[in-house]
Amino acid sequence: MRKKDPEKQEAILHSAVRIFAHQGYHVAKMSKIAEDAGVAAGSLYLYFKNKESLLEEVIDATWEDMRRRYEHSIQAEGLSPAQKLVALIDIVFDLFMDDPDRAIIFVNEQHHLEQKGIVDFSTKKEMLLNLGAQVIQEGVSRGDFDPHIDIMIFKEFIFGGLHQVLNLWALQPEQVDLDKIRKALKPIILNSIAK
Amino acid sequence: MRKKDPEKQEAILHSAVRIFAHQGYHVAKMSKIAEDAGVAAGSLYLYFKNKESLLEEVIDATWEDMRRRYEHSIQAEGLSPAQKLVALIDIVFDLFMDDPDRAIIFVNEQHHLEQKGIVDFSTKKEMLLNLGAQVIQEGVSRGDFDPHIDIMIFKEFIFGGLHQVLNLWALQPEQVDLDKIRKALKPIILNSIAK
DNA sequence: CGCTAAAATGAACCACCATTCATTTTTCTC
DNA sequence: GAGAAAAATGAATGGTGGTTCATTTTAGCG
User: What's the rounded Cα separation, in Å, for the pair A188 and A183?
Assistant: First the structure.
């Protein structure tokens, strides 16, 4: 009577993360993931239902990670809206810093699951974006931020900008120090919303 | 002795644009493109070498369009750096306004060709981004823009932000007026770089 | 009007890849 | 140590979809 090997499951996930991040979901081959993990192709299906489940596992875990980071950072007392905005930015940077491959998959590949109607991340996304909206609204109320700002557009714009810059960095993380980028972007973002 | 029908070629391109934009390159099926264009699947290969050539045709045409728009707008005399920056933003907005599907393909799908080493758009991208860099450098020199700005990071950030917002708009163009978004974004961008 | 050559067709072909499964190996329990 | 059951294997299977091609149709030319 054998038991599944947790280390083997981790190896498969680790290989999947690397290959999904570098090649994209569609181009990534199950046979390559198996090879990279050092298991037979058939073994993948002992630990994961199918290719999509593999991707879902990675993304769900990152949503959970994201949620925990938010809880720890934004709830801190005594922060001004600008400091909260900076804290939100730091969450995204830290996500990329800690695991660039997972972060890349998180921002680039989850639409594959959504497109097939397998999962619906909109609730999670809404919650996350609402948090950002609250911060901006608070800043506007206190007179720290420009009251004419369109919060919806601003959120998407900042998200897209961070996405683009961090994506480029993740492709060649050794080229530019992430903290340098972080320092360069914070004033740009704070300026853009300043009153 | 028959001749190829230019209208048929346009129909195929038109269908390809719509389907590539809405489903993405990988998920898009040649059989669906043929069906949508009202031709047999085999006919596609009379007008285009293969699936990749179809995509390349769309993107090349959009690069050409982009180049022409740049020539017409940025070369205008008497513009301040801020006005030039605004003109660059307008080019991107106009591209999406005029043909959302083509614009979406242009920003989302060209990495498929690059990934396979079929084409190299880096020269074109460099030229485009250098133009933006020149505008920012001019603004810094004149004291209009923040001298501490990291031009490279700023460019990517703005591109990514515009990309994200315009992508969302293109998915549901009837939901929000594009000019409203344009008006909302311009001050955000100009503020972000202001001295 | 006849002939030629190219367009057009759409099923067949072929390659690819996710997933399955018959068989072997291994581990856990008694 | 034997037996049972699950892991593990990796080639086979089946499905998908890009591309080809044998045949038919059509249009352009003389």
Answer: 9
